[in-house]
Amino acid sequence: MAEPGRDLTDDYELGDNRYGKSRIRLVTVRRETDRHDLRDLTVAVALEGDFDAVHTRGDNTGVVATDTMKNTVYAFARDRLTGSPEAFGLELARHFATYAACSRAIIDIEEQRWLRIPEEGGEAPDAFVRAGDLTRLAHVAVDKAGGVEVEAGVGDLTVMKTTKSAFTGFDRDRYTTLPEVEDRLMATKLRATWGYRPDLVAAGSFDFDAAWDRARVALRQSLADHFSPSVQASIWIMGTAIMDAEPSIDWVRMVLPNLHHWQVDLSPYGLDNPGEVFVSTSEPHGLIDATVHRRSAG
Amino acid sequence: MAEPGRDLTDDYELGDNRYGKSRIRLVTVRRETDRHDLRDLTVAVALEGDFDAVHTRGDNTGVVATDTMKNTVYAFARDRLTGSPEAFGLELARHFATYAACSRAIIDIEEQRWLRIPEEGGEAPDAFVRAGDLTRLAHVAVDKAGGVEVEAGVGDLTVMKTTKSAFTGFDRDRYTTLPEVEDRLMATKLRATWGYRPDLVAAGSFDFDAAWDRARVALRQSLADHFSPSVQASIWIMGTAIMDAEPSIDWVRMVLPNLHHWQVDLSPYGLDNPGEVFVSTSEPHGLIDATVHRRSAG
Amino acid sequence: MAEPGRDLTDDYELGDNRYGKSRIRLVTVRRETDRHDLRDLTVAVALEGDFDAVHTRGDNTGVVATDTMKNTVYAFARDRLTGSPEAFGLELARHFATYAACSRAIIDIEEQRWLRIPEEGGEAPDAFVRAGDLTRLAHVAVDKAGGVEVEAGVGDLTVMKTTKSAFTGFDRDRYTTLPEVEDRLMATKLRATWGYRPDLVAAGSFDFDAAWDRARVALRQSLADHFSPSVQASIWIMGTAIMDAEPSIDWVRMVLPNLHHWQVDLSPYGLDNPGEVFVSTSEPHGLIDATVHRRSAG
Amino acid sequence: MAEPGRDLTDDYELGDNRYGKSRIRLVTVRRETDRHDLRDLTVAVALEGDFDAVHTRGDNTGVVATDTMKNTVYAFARDRLTGSPEAFGLELARHFATYAACSRAIIDIEEQRWLRIPEEGGEAPDAFVRAGDLTRLAHVAVDKAGGVEVEAGVGDLTVMKTTKSAFTGFDRDRYTTLPEVEDRLMATKLRATWGYRPDLVAAGSFDFDAAWDRARVALRQSLADHFSPSVQASIWIMGTAIMDAEPSIDWVRMVLPNLHHWQVDLSPYGLDNPGEVFVSTSEPHGLIDATVHRRSAG
């Protein structure tokens, strides 16, 4: 323990810091006359600001309790979760940015999609199955001066290309045993995030749902169509395709684990294996992380 | 350590036992001219039999190595994974049941579904996204004498009913604080398994895919349609609906966690909450497990 | 949906069923003058009984709400969690077995161990670190007539033997490629459970903590000492060692995944590997499950 | 798809990027005459550099395959994993930094601790149990010019203070319902990382194990001793204590989830609860992230 009277701030200083509430799990049901709408969000709130005294002197003045953050998310969900997760995030972030000590409020949202259960002659008005094919991501930051940053994306999108993927021409040295391969499986659990042009999103009329849909369709289509000489090149191809399709996007980042599928050697059992039987593995895995920018962007 | 010369079997005896290989992850790609078919199975093999000497004397005679089980699964996948997971399981189980020491071979399969990525004018022939909405389950056991047991099911099916669910009239005592509720959310991650009539499945011509599809549709439809006075009653209703739809099924078992969604009290913030805003939780959770039998079944 | 007037019980009947509350997470702090005692339990309650009308007619009479079960666990923890988890489980099970509809009450408990943080000159009286090396398991069932069943065990005990483990003499066939090996790593995440003699545990004075300690020490010691010709033989050896050490135990069940560690072939890089460098894997894994009984047991 | 002849680099450019291999699971056994030493590391390799052509033109020249990275880790483990994980990371990073295209090589290591199983009269020479109480972390980056960055830390350290934790004086507004509390439980799954002075670690004789031990003891002791007015203040107190104890450390970062333990209201059952019975929860959770710097540091 520090000796009595010693002022630790003579020797140390606070650096980067943020705090907040994570894993706020929120479900809303909007009860229209003839059908219900179901939303399922997991929200995280984080604040940055002048919290020196909180850390160094134990003075909680100006601290918004993380419990209050949670309450606020549920209260705002009552009336203000009427559109996109990005718009909801903006409402929340703008609210938190008004607190005196807060210089920047950051909201992260993962939205799970639920689909109406199909029924004879239509869809159930009030029964749902979780889609499970991907998560929609939204990230919003608002600073004291009103500056706004909005990112969106998809997570947990597990995809596989059964051809049009190769890996050749790489460096070979003493530790290289991987053969060059002209045709391999490419599998990944994709996470893609992208940033919208700040001037567009600050305006208030930006259609986040439409932009997200266009980006997602472009991602999906380029994923299916392109020939991949490497996961790195795939990121470039898919990232530029997203920006070609959606001019409001300034940059795209992708983090792709390369979930290796090894062709099984069946020759010990007297069988051939013309690219038909594979072991799927999850570790170790390649991990490729790259961001592609629009040149016109700042 | 036991003293020299002591025979532990004077004092102890082996009881129930089984061994095998779990988490055998298998992907197959069938390469037709114009499109690929993708399968993704996780297989477990277990054997029961006369393995007393293996345990009590360290005598491995007659032991099929679990590594051999794994190899066999991949080898069989080359030519024999052409239909349902149940049929593949039967091929494997019948093979393992021929080993001298094996009295019963058990195969468990979880199949992940992958969907072709939609493209302009159709679907990608060679690019897939994991569906993520449910897992198809198959369980096969074959005994030495040729007796066959086939079960199928669905797992990881996360569903929600936003109305038509109540919970009233239950016991109230000193420890009861839960109010009776006429209209609540019901959410669960459903696991349903069912057993087919042994005489039908042994014949070899049973259409497991069609039966599974009919059962799944009946499950989905009854899930959406029924009024639930309790999770227990829901199991009865959905289980009997499955058997009504598919006469080859003798019994249905369901294990349903009740994933509670608590309506948030927004009154501290001056807001009402007419069943619109909920906290979703995962623990603690109710857990309801019941089996429904067809009376005509043995 | 069933047609109006149809009685589904003409065609179907309820089979095995149970229901309850799982993942009830409970922490208690006993505040002695000079130090605190910390307990951390995860409790599950399940009831079996005459619940036909609950399932088939939606009649909740006699249903103990799972919310009430949760409340009861916390209320009982106030005064009655003073000794072993088995004793706490018995208190709870005996309480639930008194409900009219309940024929059998089952309590499962996982206890996490926390250790006092070491300090200069002793241990912290009020600061703890989670041990993380194993989980203590307790399972109690009480039936209406007062019959009592108590099991205990350890879970999540991850262990490795770096020698004294072999696997030879097993069956070889077309699909066998595994070499025989006289010296291998054996690694597992062990789960062992055992049953106490019913007459001893019903008496009320049985010392569950002492019995658990003796069983655990015997398990640990036999694990370290024995030569393993197979995982199956290891179960026999460790199970009989536990019963040798603790006469109150009638049977021991072990479920051992065989977490394979493959010796890496370093020869492509001009290096030998005399059993020094291994890849640890988690899937696929062997899975060995066996129960050993004391002969004097019923 | 991009139209033929279009050069995407006219419109887009590559930004930040890195790639590598994650989850390389490595176990080593050093076989001394009378006892074995067991190490268990999970290693990740990442490279940064001039990989523009890899992304934008599909040219893999200069790409070190992630499979080669994995092989290299195992090969280096043969002879060079003789000391601290930081030293092993430095060997690896310096090797990868020699590749022409690589401007910066980054190695992340998590080390699991295994303890010898206690035996009568000593410890087992060749049988181990996984400690499970924490993970040792090491992070090394080496750039082309030889610049070196070494960080260390602990992860997955789950701790609880049963008193000496308060939270009062925080902001109250419309959405605040949390009462001020002078005495609460504080529980967290702590992750602390710290940076060593570059001049010290580059020298080659730095004792990483000793520094890590001193830091860990200081962390543990300050954790147990201090009074916490908030999690933020705890980070300051523990971070400065670590740097007081270990002059080679320039900064400490801590990321602390606040795993809330709610005191149960037992009054509905006629019971008091003087801080004895709690619900432990994992979501939502507070999340506090702060870095403390030594003033003398750059």
What would your notes on this structure say?
- Four copies of one chain form a homotetramer.
- The first copy, chain A, is an alpha+beta fold.
- Chain A is built from six helices and ten strands, in the order ββαααββββαααββββ.
- The first copy, chain A, has helices at 52-57, 66-79, 85-97, 198-202, 208-225, 231-245, and strands at residues 12-31, 36-49, 102-119, 122-143, 148-161, 186-196, 249-258, 261-263, 277-280, 285-294.
- In chain A, the strands form two sheets. In chain A, strands 1-2-3-4-5-6-7-10 form an eight-stranded antiparallel β-sheet. In chain A, strands 8-9 form a two-stranded antiparallel sheet.
- In chain A, α2 packs across α3 and α5 packs across α6 (231-245).
- The longest helix of chain A has 18 residues, at 208-225.
- Chain A is globular, with a radius of gyration of 24 Å.
- The mean pLDDT of chain A is 96.
- At the B-C interface, β1, α1, α2, α6 and β7 of B face β1, α1, α2, α6 and β7 of C.
- β4 of chain C pairs antiparallel with β5 of chain D, so a sheet runs across the interface.
Main interface: chain pair and counts: A-D, 86 and 86 residues
Question: End-to-end distance of chain A, in Å?
Answer: 49 Å
Sheet with most strands: strand arrangement of chain A: 1-2-3-4-5-6-7-10
Unreliable segments of 5+ consecutive residues of chain A: none
- The total count of helices of chain A amounts to 6
Category by helix and strand content of chain A: alpha+beta
Tally of strands of chain A? 10
Quick one: overall form of chain A?
A: globular
Q: What is the percentage of strand-forming residues of chain A? A: 35-45%
Topology as H/E string of chain A?
EEHHHEEEEHHHEEEE
For the residues shown, what is the average pLDDT of chain A? 96
Our Rg estimate of chain A from Cα atoms comes to 24 Å
Major sheet details of chain A:
8 strands, antiparallel
Oligomer state equals: homotetramer
Helix content of chain A: 10-25%
